[in-house]
């Protein structure tokens, strides 16, 4: 099929854009040089013929998909090494490493994913200098391929309840790893099934019968030559899933497997030859890799959404349906204001979380520097922020990815649109690295503690400083500052109400734990409200900061999106605002009008805004979202790749249908 250059609808849309698209791309990439570097890597990666799929993944068997993903992982690794991309692959060192768009060559994830995202970072974060020297080098050269094995069949959330044991034998100076029950089998680690030969195993340390809590151990599970599981190691793949089907998630059990003493990662806690345990300054330092990954999830969530919204908005610009005015042609569906309502918030939300993720990464890096000199003061706030922002970014972005999919009608249901796969990998972020409700409860724990300490005169950390403000009623103010203050009031109101309930329940005779459980619906509401206030504040302040350096045209569009985000959230959370602020019906009416005006204002820039995410077609992998907008042609081309279309009549006709038709079954 020969394609014209660009669909005229998209051509028209691009002509109405009021700002410089490249300028916004550079901002999202955290600098023009980062855009250039990213594009250079993409040029390399997408020119490798081995990285292209001849048959779409969805037409392959489970086994073939895995084998194809391994093949591509190896070629990708090779080309990235040749290109000199080390930072983004092994360990993020900078914000610019976030836009590793080339990973989209895996629609459903890479089996090497955990090597890069958790195995190597845990070696770097939890190993002492000698261990880092040994293991990091081996991992860099891909001599060892690893994963992070923490979750078990019986426990994912409650990690103090993990059952895998590492018992120290001082006679041989070894740890003996054992899985005492079926429920103690590791379950879920990415790549564990058939890919990795080593892993970080999080296990309960025991010395002379005494428990010392969960510690990280580096364990060889397969022979480096034959790849056969080592004696005493039971390993395999866990089977088909909603998504991540090429990540090769696995199970793992141990039957008294011995490893040398120095295979416990000993940066923070140590076990001496004679079995003396030296505890870390803070026992939660063993949870460090999880904090780091939660921080990075905020960016992943924003990225998945930015891809989905690019696909949905481009498709909405080329799709014509129904009649707005009887005597006129069918309009682009993007002209329906309900369609704009579904989609423009996706652009704004993606910006909000992307800019917040860069800010959060800076907070994390600052903490890392302080941790290196023994200062852990920032950890409680960082932990609360990482938990809460992980939750609201993953749940908001996943909800909006699904909205994008549905906004494309039937075609959004096609695997070739890539929207179902984007939903699959996005919704996984709501569960992994801390299930979302549990993470909100962790946040609430930190907030209640801060509130109680605050009431006794202790200062609040920066993101909670507004808790100290008196909650005096004031007239509703629809400016950005006014809305931010209103959301802070909601946050204070929900937290103080949760704390009152906790106090009443304990006064009525409930134990602290039962009171907590009974009030937990309120508590997660308070945690979410704090997260909202943080995101509103950071999104606004980051855009105000960038606004000082970008062109007036771009500044104006960036603020349209900030306003849209603020007004949309105000209308969504109207109930809370009516309860805790002076918002009135009259204010709501004028906010609705403001929202409709903003949709109208953003409409001419919709395509420019999604073009600025700068996803080349190979990255989007979508029949509906390509840059040229020829969605129907691509849908048909992809449909023709179905193996069923290789022959006009399938053999099942002769075997089953014909006998049925002839009454001969
Ligand atoms: C590509 C991705 C693939 C996916 C990979 C995975 O999913 S891998 C698998 C991912 N798996 C998961 O994500 C599992 C999710 N589960 C967990 O992370 C933990 O079991 C827990 C945090 C829920 C509870 O832990 P617990 O029972 O040990 O703790 P507690 O509740 O009794 O609180 C005690 C104190 O510790 C504090 N504190 C807690 N965590 C941290 C931290 N990280 N840092 C700092 N501090 C922390 C807490 O604030 C509290 O302080 P307070 O108030 O005393 O001053
Ligand atoms: C795609 C994917 C990839 C993964 N990759 C890895 C990996 O590489 N390595 C690894 O170690 N793990 C991995 N995991 C496991 C993941 O970290 C866990 O599934 C996650 O932490 C949730 O734990 P769980 O499955 O035990 O859920 P559960 O805790 O059993 O959750 C079930 C329900 O119980 C509720 N619940 C549990 N505890 C509480 C509580 N205290 N209060 C209130 N409600 C509660 C939850 O809210 C939820 O509704 C992966 C998971 C997925 C889906």
UniProtKB/TrEMBL annotation:
Residue ranges annotated for the Acyl-coenzyme A oxidase N-terminal domain, each copy included: 20-145
Residues covered by the Acyl-CoA oxidase C-terminal domain: 480-662
Keywords from the UniProt entry: ATP-binding, FAD, Fatty acid metabolism, Flavoprotein, Lipid metabolism, Nucleotide-binding, Oxidoreductase, Peroxisome
GO molecular function annotation: acyl-CoA oxidase activity; ATP binding; FAD binding; fatty acid binding
A single GO BP: lipid homeostasis
Protein name, as recorded: Acyl-coenzyme A oxidase
Domain Acyl-CoA oxidase C-alpha1 per the UniProt entry, residue ranges: 287-448
């Amino acid at each position: 099929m020969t394609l014209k250059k660009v669909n005229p609808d998209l051509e028209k849309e691009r002509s109405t854009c009021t700002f410089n698209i490249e300028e916004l791309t550079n901002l999202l990439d955290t600098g023009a040089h980062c855009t250039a570097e990213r594009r250079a890597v993409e040029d390399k990666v997408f020119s490798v013929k081995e990285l292209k799929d001849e048959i779409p993944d969805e037409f392959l068997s489970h086994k073939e998909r895995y084998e194809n993903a391994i093949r591509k992982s190896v070629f990708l690794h090779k080309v990235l090494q040749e290109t000199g991309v080390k930072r983004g692959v092994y360990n993020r060192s900078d914000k610019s490493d976030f836009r590793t768009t080339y990973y989209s060559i895996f629609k459903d994830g890479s089996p090497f994913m955990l090597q890069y995202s958790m195995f190597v970072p845990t070696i770097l974060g939890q190993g002492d200098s000698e261990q880092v020297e040994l293991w990091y080098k081996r991992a860099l050269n891909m001599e060892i391929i690893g994963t992070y094995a923490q979750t078990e069949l019986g426990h994912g959330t409650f990690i103090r309840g993990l059952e895998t044991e590492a018992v120290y034998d001082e006679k041989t100076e070894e740890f003996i790893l054992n899985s005492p029950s079926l429920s103690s089998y590791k379950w879920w680690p990415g790549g564990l099934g058939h890919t990795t030969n080593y892993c970080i195993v999080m296990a309960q340390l025991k010395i002379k019968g005494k428990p010392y809590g969960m510690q990280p151990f580096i364990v060889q599970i397969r022979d480096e030559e034959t790849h056969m599981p080592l004696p005493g190691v039971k390993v395999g793949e866990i089977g088909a899933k909603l998504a991540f089907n090429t990540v090769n998630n696995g199970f793992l059990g141990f039957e008294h497997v011995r490893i040398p003493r120095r295979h416990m990662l000993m940066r923070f806690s140590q076990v001496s030859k004679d079995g003396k345990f030296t505890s870390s300054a803070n026992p939660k330092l063993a949870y460090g890799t999880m904090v780091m990954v939660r921080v990075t999830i905020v960016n992943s969530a924003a990225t998945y959404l930015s891809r989905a919204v690019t696909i949905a908005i481009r498709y909405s610009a080329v799709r014509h349906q129904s009649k707005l005015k009887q005597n006129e042609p069918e309009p682009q569906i993007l002209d329906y204001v309900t369609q704009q309502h579904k989609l423009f918030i996706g652009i704004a939300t993606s910006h909000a979380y992307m800019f917040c993720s860069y800010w959060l990464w800076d907070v994390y890096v600052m903490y890392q520097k302080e941790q290196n000199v023994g200062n852990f003061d920032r950890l409680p706030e960082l932990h609360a922020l990482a938990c809460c922002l992980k939750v609201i970014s993953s749940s908001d972005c996943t909800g909006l990815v699904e909205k994008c999919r549905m906004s494309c009608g039937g075609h959004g249901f096609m695997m070739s649109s890539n929207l179902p796969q984007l939903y699959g990998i996005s919704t996984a972020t709501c569960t992994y690295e801390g299930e979302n409700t549990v993470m909100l409860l962790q946040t609430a724990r930190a907030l209640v503690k801060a509130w109680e300490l605050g009431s006794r005169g202790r200062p609040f950390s920066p993101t909670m400083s507004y808790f100290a403000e008196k909650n005096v009623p004031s007239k509703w103010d629809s400016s950005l500052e006014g809305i931010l203050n209103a959301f802070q009031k909601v946050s204070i109101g929900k937290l103080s109400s949760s704390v009152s309930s906790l106090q009443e329940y304990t006064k009525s005779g409930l134990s602290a734990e039962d009171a907590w459980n009974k009030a937990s619906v309120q508590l997660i509401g308070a945690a979410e409200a704090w997260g909202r206030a943080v995101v509103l504040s950071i999104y606004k302040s980051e855009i105000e900061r960038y606004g000082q350096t970008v062109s007036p045209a771009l500044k104006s569009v960036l603020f349209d999106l900030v306003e849209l985000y603020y007004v949309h959230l105000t209308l969504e959370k109207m109930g809370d605002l009516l309860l805790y602020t002076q918002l009135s019906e009259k204010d709501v009416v004028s906010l609705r009008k403001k929202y409709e005006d903003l949709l109208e204002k953003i409409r001419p820039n919709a395509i420019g805004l999604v073009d600025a995410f700068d996803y080349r077609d190979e990255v989007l992998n979508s029949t509906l979202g390509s840059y040229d907008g020829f969605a129907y042609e691509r849908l048909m081309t992809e449909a023709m790749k179905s193996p069923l279309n290789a022959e006009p009549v399938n053999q099942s006709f002769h075997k089953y249908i014909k006998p049925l038709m002839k009454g001969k079954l």
